[in-house]
Specification:
The protein is mainly β. It has no helices and 14 strands.
Length: 181
């Protein structure tokens, strides 16, 4: 399960529609007590390259990890991280922070889909996009009190997907649609 889940998404779009999506995740990973081999797996699918910008576990920075191409799906990249040596034996948890950048054409593929594959306790996503575009949030299956974003002082739109203590379930998700103004 992930706890204190915060995701920051920065979208930069050029006039021709080419753009990049920088995605930062900060989360506490809590393991089930009987879990033997804790592995963090994240799969990204897109029409452009994906590059891990940084990865930290429990405030230790790792420079040797990156996304790998999924052999049977050339549009997919996967980050697989063995957490065995990073889990605190007293709490069963580890603090994970990672950021990646992917490239895509926002005119031909104007959306970002997210599907949750773990239980998540409380979740907030924040997005910011280039001038001339805006983001529409489409709630695919998450029970939220309010789908309307709140704008913060850093220029991010913020959606609270679940308040702390409320679980998001595997299989739930959302879509961000990029719309030219």
């Amino acid at each position: 399960m992930m706890d204190l889940y915060r995701k920051f998404i920065d979208i930069e779009v050029q006039a021709d529609g080419e753009g990049s999506v920088s995605n930062t995740l900060k989360a506490d990973i809590l393991l089930a007590p009987k879990r033997k081999q804790p592995v963090f797996v994240q799969t990204i699918e897109g029409d452009g390259p994906t590059k891990l910008l940084w990865l930290r576990i429990n405030d230790k920075t790792f420079a040797t990890y990156d996304f790998q191409v999924v052999p049977h799906s050339p549009r997919s990249m996967k980050l697989t991280l063995d957490l065995t040596e990073h889990i605190n034996p007293h709490t069963g948890s580890a603090r994970l922070e990672r950021a990646f950048r992917s490239e895509q054409n926002m005119h031909s593929e104007p959306f970002i889909n997210a599907t949750l594959t773990r239980f998540i306790n409380g979740a907030v996503i924040k997005t910011r996009i280039s001038d001339g575009y805006h983001i529409r949030f489409i709630n695919d299956s998450i029970e939220m009190a309010n789908d309307d974003p709140v704008a913060d002082t850093d220029g991010y739109l913020r959606w609270v997907l679940a308040v702390p203590g409320k679980l998001l379930l595997p299989g739930q998700g959302y879509t961000l649609v990029i719309i030219k103004e």
